[in-house]
Amino acid sequence: MADEIKKDDVAEEKIPSMDDFKEELEASYKQHAAGKRADMDKWEKLQDDLDQKRTLEIEVTEAVKGGVTTTLEGLRAFIPASKLSLSFVEEDSLKDWVGKKLSVRVITADPSANKLVLSAKDILREEQNKLKAEKAAAIQVGLVTEGTVESLKDYGAFVNLGDGVTGLLHVSEISTKRIKSPAAVLKEGQKVQVQVIAVKDGKISLSMKALEAEKEEKRERKERENFRENFKGDGAVTTSLGALMRKNGFQF
């Protein structure tokens, strides 16, 4: 029959095998391996930056929920709002950070989760602490200055000496009299005269008691000097007791 299809007339289609794409597959594997190796090199570099606490320069490219993003070593990195500044950063103001150049440090480098997190705050805090330490080192023991009571604790008061320098006024150094707590004689915002009695490892110890004791010593010294002057009279060291008493107001 004419319409009968002979089996021999049907061309058998050849089913492709993996061998037919061997060259393409090998090229694809090599490209994938090279890309993966390149990515791992980047992550290893970032991990080393984290370990060495290196300071890196970046430019903020985008504001997203909870922070901003940038690109580092060709990888997308996230900077949380809490790590942008020493002060609190409002969500609405994140867009104002786009285009800003920042000094940052890697704080998380996790290739398995494709997570790269940076911080500018860590560097800013270190710079702030360094500046405070330098200012504290310039303060000499014995210095008498005015400060403002910043906060009160059970063990003493922290006094702001200006220029970001704070010293501790221990409860035992507040007065020559025994007091129950700093709050019994001091309040936050109060101006006080203090003397620097120690500076160690950037920490400053203050005293009000030392000034109080010094005032008392000056008063006693003045009284002794007055007594000597009275005793000498008009230059005679042999002034009689009666004359000395009359000079001091005693009536006979």
Write the layout of secondary structure elements.
Blueprint lengths: L21 H31 L3 E4 L2 E3 L2 E6 L2 E6 L20 E10 L4 E5 L1 H17 L6 E10 L2 E7 L2 E6 L20 E10 L2 E5 L1 H24 L8 H7 L5
Parallel strand pairs: 9-11
Antiparallel strand pairs: 1-5, 2-3, 3-4, 5-6, 7-8, 7-10, 8-9, 10-11
What does this protein structure show overall?
There is one protein chain. The chain has 252 residues and is an alpha+beta fold. 31% of the residues lie in helices and 29% in strands. It is built from four helices and eleven strands; from the N terminus they run αββββββαβββββαα. The chain has helices spanning 22-52, 121-137, 209-232, 241-247; strands spanning 56-59, 62-64, 67-72, 75-80, 101-110, 115-119, 144-153, 156-162, 165-170, 191-200, 203-207. A five-stranded mixed barrel has the order 7-8-9-11-10. The protein has a three-stranded antiparallel sheet with strand order 1-5-6. A hairpin with a 2-residue loop joins β8 and β9 (165-170). The longest helix has 31 residues, at 22-52.
Short overview:
This protein is an alpha+beta fold and 252 residues long.
Summarize the helix and strand pattern as letters.
Answer: HEEEEEEHEEEEEHH
* Biggest β-sheet description: 5 strands, mixed, barrel
Q: Pick out the low-confidence regions.
A: none
Radius of gyration: 40 Å
Taken as a percent bin, the fraction of beta residues is 25-35%
Oligomer: single chain
Strand order in the sheet with the most strands? 7-8-9-11-10
Give the CA-based shape.
elongated
Terminus-to-terminus distance: 168 Å
Q: Which structural class do you get from the secondary structure elements?
A: alpha+beta
* Average pLDDT metric: 81
